[in-house]
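Our preliminary data section would be incomplete without showing what the modeling component actually yields. Below, a chain of 330 amino acids is followed by its predicted structure, encoded as tokens that our downstream tools consume directly.
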Amino acid sequence: MRRRHFLTAATGTTAAVVPLVAARPYAVGTTDVIRLRSGLDALTALDAAKGGHEALERVALAGATEALELQKRAVSQRIRQRLFSVAANYTASAAWSAVDARQSDRAQVHLNRALYLAGLGNDPVAELRVWNSHAMLAAHRGEFAQVVDAGRAAQATAVTRRDPLFASLAHARTAIGYSSVGDRRGALRSLGYAEEALANASTDEPRAPWVAFYGPAELLAITAIVRDDIGDAAGAEAASHRALAAIPQQFRRNRALAALQLAVAQLHQRDEEQACATAGQVFVLMEGTPLPGRMRCYLGDFCRELTTLAPDSTIAREWKNRYRSERSQT
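Predicted structure:
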């Protein structure tokens, strides 16, 4: 039986990820599950390099659709559950792509669907993944109490009891929620829990590829956000420097976001010239790739805050000109 594989990337090119459904019926088993899961790996790598975009979202939804079609012909209930799990993860990939592209309404629909499918698949890792994205979506919308609620829901998933790394991620996301609502004590407490759990996490345990972004470097990046939120700009700057030194090169978007957070911390210490130089590194790090919607919004926030703090400075005018020029090119 011949099958062709397709992946539409940001550039419109085609590569292998999601296969077309076979023309004639056959019993669906483990081989099909493995094949579809390999497509998830490819989507995760594409997201890490380029960020969220509509093409990735479409391919992820196509993968979910195929998984749901195949589960109808599964050879056993166990295979059906595994295919529901795969569908949940494809849908969660689509949701995250929409979050990163700043398409909040689509992201919400996908997250609700992914949570339902994760339940059908009895997949607590997928459930945590969905709650993690829920927390990030709520933060983008300014619904900070919901960030805390989503973080707590992530903490309550079964996987956090058996894998400290996932527990750490859930606590870290909750810390952002607390800092956003002005609860300094809660934020620092959650950060402490995240650090403690991560120190107990095994580095050798096999995990889903989507969580590869999380570790000591990402926790430092989150620490920088929390520290800045609670008014500790110097602490945020220190954490950002350490994060940038540790985030792996393949996570281009995450490195760019860490650089921008560093620039924000420098701006909050009224070092406008250094802040602008640091923020300019975002364009260098993302060169050749369109900026995801989320990053564009953060850059816009930086530009507005710079204008507020130094409205008549030469450096602010120069930065705004560069920002407009770079944005027009991406």
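The radius of gyration is 21 Å. The longest strand covers residues 14-19. Preliminary results of this kind motivate Aim 1 of the renewal.
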